[in-house]
Specification:
Number of domains of chain A: 1
Strand order of the largest sheet of chain A: 3-2-4-7-1-8-11-10-9
Radius of gyration of chain A: 19 Å
CATH class of the largest domain in chain B: Mainly Beta
Number of helices of chain A: 15
Oligomer: heterodimer
Number of domains of chain B: 2
Number of strands of chain B: 7
Strand content of chain A: 15-25%
Shape of chain B: globular
CATH class of chain A: Alpha Beta
Largest sheet of chain A: 9 strands, mixed
Helix content of chain B: under 10%
Order of helices and strands of chain A: EHEHEHEHHHHHHHEEEEHEHHHHEE
Structural class of chain A: alpha/beta
Order of helices and strands of chain B: HEEEEEEE
CATH topology of the largest domain in chain B: OB fold (Dihydrolipoamide Acetyltransferase, E2P)
CATH architecture of chain A: 3-Layer(aba) Sandwich
Number of strands of chain A: 11
Shape of chain A: globular
């Protein structure tokens, strides 16, 4: 597979996001799927491959009237849909199918039907036996465990940690669909309620309902669709620890799986960091972009906190990041990977609410579990 | 049926939980490459050997990193916030646990402080926890 051989020709969120009462997780997925098909100018009959996560893929194909000859039900946490896109690209390239619908929905806020908590806590699973009891009910109490040591090791301050959501709120203010748009200051963040010291409420993501979907096909067909194609230039992925605990991460301050994933994606795409016009780093919590910027090699170890606090990722900065507002200000359902990708795709298409000028290369990096998995994608506006 | 947070052993992890019930921290050790690892598995994560023995760990450990959870599960019977910690065992593995027997404050919980394994009630069973090493020495 060469960079750009696969293209995204349909992309959409569910009609409503945020607080969507009385719609289940599958309902959100189906709505997002119908929107993505309409965006591509297709119907279910045109789809011969399908993916989803957290619920059986057959639940979705059956309800949409799709009879796929290829499917994928990969579940590795929030970046599952990024892995599914990689897998779909490989399947199309192999000739297993021609047009794949990647579907996602999660009623993380309202009905909580079929949400990820059940997968994390399956009885007798490693997470249920050894991890979940300690941080029960609070992802911040597990995902944020390495933060304190990082602060001591590199001198990251609470103010710098608080600057991460502040930077992203400036993007959210430009986005009518963002869940929280009111101005936010470092003082506001540091005065918000303590959740899991040193993590405060405003360093945590929102809790939302949302769905979304992508339509993916061979780039040879990509010009036949009504929207500008977004090419997949490269991808990477890696697994490191258990789903519910960073205890298995070999080097918790500099996890190897981030570098593995990032290197694979950048090498496949044939790009360097200077080529990147736009960046998404999945932000369930304020420290995630810090670890991501360093692991992906955008900055040196220990530098990412200051890099963000100095404004480099804000509107007008040299590396626009999390431009929807991110999980902390736009929406976060529990598994944010699809929403993360959709913002990258909007930016490459040139149709984002807070549009960055001339986005030709966009990098999207997501996490799964509490550092169980990650995936890195490189999107482009041109086929090389 | 027990609360969903109460750990459910599998045949492969039963020796660990038997150890907990007996007040011992038991860990699997590979008889071929001598790696001590966690969580339990019938296959060594270092060399894929299936010749595994259970050892009784020293209980010595140190505090790698932590947060202070403001709303711990009621099953802990905690009277306030509770630490959730990454604890490095002397034998090598890192485990997720909690440090008890001291104030749950940044002042009392110091990174790299020596710890000792203990077992504390969680619902109707006991689970692994740690105390500052000075408490028992």
């Amino acid at each position: 597979m060469r960079p750009g051989d696969i293209a995204i020709v349909g992309a959409a969120e569910s009609t409503h996001i945020g607080t969507v009462p009385n719609v289940s997780s599958t309902g959100l997925a189906l709505d997002g799927a119908a929107n993505a098909l309409a965006d591509a100018g297709l119907t279910a009959k045109d789809i011969d491959g399908i993916t989803t996560g957290y619920f059986p893929v057959a639940d979705i194909s059956r309800q949409l009237g799709i009879f796929p000859k290829w499917c994928d039900n990969t579940v590795v946490g929030g970046c599952s849909w990024m892995f599914q896109l990689r897998n779909a690209a490989a399947a199309i390239n192999a000739g297993y199918c021609s047009t794949v619908l990647i579907t996602y929905g999660e009623s993380g806020r309202s009905t909580r039907h079929l949400t990820n908590s059940g997968d994390f806590g399956v009885r007798g699973g490693m997470a249920q036996q050894f991890d979940l009891l300690y941080g029960a009910g609070m992802p911040a109490a597990m995902f944020c465990l390495p933060v304190l040591r990082y602060m001591r090791e590199y001198g990251l301050t609470e103010e710098q940690l608080a600057a991460v959501p502040v930077a992203q709120r400036k993007w959210a203010a430009l986005n009518p669909r963002a869940g929280r748009r009111e101005p936010l200051t470092v003082d506001d963040v540091l005065n918000s309620p303590m959740v899991a010291w040193p993590i405060r409420r405003d360093m945590c993501c929102l809790v939302s309902d949302a769905g979304g979907a992508l339509v993916v096909t061979s780039a040879d067909r990509a010009k036949d669709f009504p929207t500008p194609p977004v090419y997949l230039l490269g991808s990477g992925g890696g697994l490191e620890a258990g789903l519910a605990s960073p205890a298995g991460v070999r080097d918790p301050l500099h996890p190897e799986f981030i570098r593995t994933s990032g290197r694979a994606a950048f090498e496949a795409a044939g790009i360097t960091h200077d080529d990147v016009d736009h960046l998404m780093i999945y932000d369930a919590f304020a420290h995630n972009p810090i670890f991501g910027l360093e692991g992906l090699g955008f900055v040196e170890r220990g530098e990412a906190g200051a890099f963000i606090a100095e404004g480099n990722t804000e509107p007008g900065g040299r590396l626009p990041m999390n431009t929807s507002g991110g999980g902390m200000s736009y929406a976060h359902t529990g598994a944010y990977g699809m929403l993360c990708m959709l913002e990258s795709i909007r930016q490459v298409r040139g149709e984002a609410p807070a549009q960055v000028p001339d986005v030709n290369i966009a990098v999207c990096h997501g996490w799964g579990g509490f550092w169980s998995a990650c995936s890195t994608l490189v999107f482009g506006s041109e086929r090389p | 049926m027990a609360h969903p947070l109460v750990p459910v052993p599998t045949p492969e992890t039963q020796p660990y939980w038997d150890g907990v019930a007996a007040g011992e921290l038991r860990l699997p050790r590979c008889e071929d490459c001598t790696t001590v690892y966690f969580p339990p598995s019938p296959v060594c994560p270092n060399c894929t050997s299936r010749t595994i023995a259970w050892i009784t760990a020293s209980g010595d450990a140190s505090l790698y990193s932590y947060v202070i959870h403001q709303r711990p599960s009621k099953l802990w019977n905690a009277d306030g916030p509770m630490s959730v910690a990454l604890v490095a065992l002397a034998e090598g593995p890192m485990v997720l646990s909690t440090v008890i027997g001291c104030p749950q404050t940044p002042e009392a919980l110091v990174l790299d402080m020596p710890l000792r394994a203990t077992f504390t009630p969680f619902d109707e069973i006991k689970v692994l926890a740690f105390v500052p090493a000075e408490e028992q020495s």
